[in-house]
């Protein structure tokens, strides 16, 4: 893994070097935010679309069958941060980017500052569709600007608490509804020899989701300058809270997505997981021996009787700069992310959770799930999706930010430094990175 | 016997004889300790290198559930053939296609690279012409440039001619092996005697014919080495395909497995497929080594000059 990371770093650096010293040489592209011509083509078009969603080919086939004049060709690759984003940047540089691509919310600002995205709000269909999406999800692609759409929201990851209902019940521990109760429960659970949950040092986005719940944000952009606030009030509250749990050995610290981590859940060593809707699938496959014993509850709240939630993950379909067919491309992107036919297929093949209000009522999301003792878990997530704050904004250098935070977290769980220190030093590192890339920073 | 013509892995036994008698004369007790030390170090390292492969092998035989819940270094219920079947049939056998692609990239690429490097190294060693050292030094400089650093420039160049996302985008850069030129030049210099080339010329053979029918045979161990190195390098080359290819049908097996691995969060079954796939994907490398090893070892050229 290490040599690969440094290999990526080399390419990232050289890409930055290349983009840094060249003025725009991609011809015929509208600058970010400039009005684009969104008129239909007179002749049939073929669009290229890069996505790593498993089973996307099947969905596109359905579209191709009923739209002979707008044919879509799927290209694939590893997930965004594992190489596909870098490929997009290389392709944008070389002028052969696909018409459409999958970009996660946290990577959108990066593409935007590099002028990689077409603002498709000029397309009437897109402007009309705004109200069909969950407002905060739309905010992720519009960056909060009026009349802007740098992509179409595809899926979201509203968060909730997955917990072992059998173990909580056997040990007479109430399922926590506030973070205060969560802490008290953590003490009780620790007495049984297990941990209430795991603090995953490498899932910085999970931590971001917890910060998101407080209504705080990590970045702000006033259309010109970027403000970095990794250690704001919300972050500080969350960081101190978890630091305390780590210090008192009330949470475990297995690195996420490893076999030890799976095993900890599978053997009942860890009882709960603050995760997103797609986590239902992860837990079911990582802890197969515990089938039927899990339930889902709303996220614990900071204030009693509040209804706030966070988001972890989610992606959008964007039209890249240089696409000659923004009209057809946005038409396809809208169909892909709003039609119940497509949303159902995406949900079945890749567990995507729709970003449209209507999508939350898909029949496939109304059934009880066996792994969770037939609980209708998606009702909990639908409620969660409506409680996510619209204020959270991602920064333009998230890869670096994630790495900085995660390096600090890794040290913090072994007792060197604290979570808050990690956020503070990541704050400095991020500002430095933005300055290096000549992205304006608000002081 | 031409002492320079011995193969790297089998030095002339005659010259080592005194050393052997010397150590035998000192008796077994003094000899035991360093030998055991050396053995111990080798055993430790062999263990160290083999453990991951053992883990991979054991894991590949397990069912999805047993993978995380049972001892990682020992078998539980053996599920190997079912796992292999699953990998081979997943998504219409795309895995087999990737293996085929890898064989084409690595086999074809290594073959062409070996021929080119062999000819180049031979020419640099056996013909004197103006600028010979300069060319050699430039090629030697090429050894120092990591392939990773070249991937992005190559991508931009291939973009100019609209050749990204094609078989050639990975194949063409793979047929260049500066290290191969270096090795074959050194080897040709010491293993192909000028007298033999002279004799071939006197018999009326053209230079090309001399190369292919006389020199290649003498250079064979070096060529096999170059072929193996290049085969492994292309087989394991992951970065270039990652940057060049978008179409799953052109992926080599490394990129394919990596793609699967990056989708584990969405399709957890893939974890098992990646493990089994990784195990299957090292089989061609093992076969190539076992098969070519004997060519590598045999010291050709010995006794060619009386």
From TrEMBL, chain A:
The keyword NAD does not apply. Residues 1-24 form the signal peptide. Gene3D superfamilies: Periplasmic binding protein-like II. Keywords: Cell membrane, Lipoprotein, Membrane, Palmitate, Signal. InterPro entries: Bact_solute-bd_prot1, SBP. It comes from the Bacteria. PANTHER family: ARABINOSE-BINDING PROTEIN-RELATED, POLYGALACTURONAN_RHAMNOGALACTURONAN-BINDING PROTEIN YTCQ. This is Sugar ABC transporter substrate-binding protein.
